[in-house]
Amino acid sequence: MSKRRAPWWRLWHGGEPQRPPAPASGAGGPPDPTPAVAAAVRVPPKGAAGAPSEAAAGALTRSATHAAWLRIREEIPAWMAWILGVIPVLVLLGLWWAVTAGPTPESRLISPTILPSPLEVVRSFPALWFDRALTRNLTVSLTRVAGGFAVAVAIAFPLGLAMGAFTKIKAMFNPLAVFGAYLPIPALVPLTLSLFGTGEKQKVAFLALAFGIYLLPLVVAAVDQVDQVYLKTAYTLGANRWQAVTRVLLGVAWPDIFQALRMGFGIGWSYIILAEMVDIGRGLGGIIIISQRRGPREHIYLVLLVIVAVAYLTDRLWTWAGQRLFPYRVEARR
């Protein structure tokens, strides 16, 4: 007669096979999972005296050390955040210096025509400032970004508010929003060229389309997330449709809409090079294209650093304005 196979609950790791704990009498609910979880945790091997062995003790010590240094969603002081943020930057600078070190171009791992050294990039800054008119070209690019952003907000903001408030309007324009979400932004360059030529209108129109495609879903989502209880309360107090949209939906969604505008303005600096690839007489994108064709290559990296710095400063301005407009959001995060 064959031996009967043990049921699955007897196949525990280590120790004597045990049945799962029975539910409490009269409760009728599921069994208490605590003994099962405790049994699933492997206990480190013990020595002759019953204490953990040296290897197990070392493993426990290392595990405790790692757990104390790296915790899930822990709060860290500002000085530690700065130090941890600087480490990757220093590593990248060290790698950059290592691959471009050498007295002659032949002794370098990467040719200076492709990647100049950090010192060469810094030394070329006076030529970029005076000979290439950095401030004037920066002003031109900033004006284009601001102009495209203003046109996009003038269209995406009221349309997104209407789509978030009225279901019929959302059903009408949602196919266009979905189409724009899957549209590659660089494909808009030849489209705007054919419609507006190579002048200033083309660059502003391209940036406005890029901004609008990004902002519209965020504005709609911000209005959609307003809890229905606010509308019910407003209607109970006698609010009409216009007041429900402007004072309730818009009033509650304003912080999220402002955050969407802040993020959208930063997107413009990602597309400014595409906008200025044609008619490269002015703008930061023009400096990059001319430096790529004629040199010096150091100016390419300097302009990229300038774009990052300006984008960061403008983002800080948006953050400062958001803290002044919505101080209760800052207090809630604390």
* Low-confidence parts: 8-20, 22-29, 36-41
Element pattern in H and E: HHHHHHHHHHHHHH
Q: What is the fold-level CATH name, i.e. the topology of the largest domain?
A: MetI-like fold
Fourth-level CATH superfamily of the largest domain: MetI-like
In CATH, the architecture of the largest domain is Orthogonal Bundle
Average pLDDT, rounded to a whole number, is 79
Describe the structure.
With 334 residues, the protein is an all-alpha fold. The chain contains 14 helices and no strands. It has 2 domains: 78-107; 118-333, MetI-like fold (Orthogonal Bundle), CATH 1.10.3720.10. It has helices at residues 34-40, 54-69, 78-100, 118-123, 125-130, 134-165, 167-181, 188-196, 200-224, 228-236, 241-275, 284-294, 298-325, 327-333. Helix 12 (284-294) runs antiparallel to helix 13 (298-325).
Characteristic terms for this protein:
2 domains; single chain; mainly alpha; 14 helices; 0% strand; 334 residues; MetI-like fold
Please give a quick description of this structure.
The chain is mainly α and about 325 residues long.
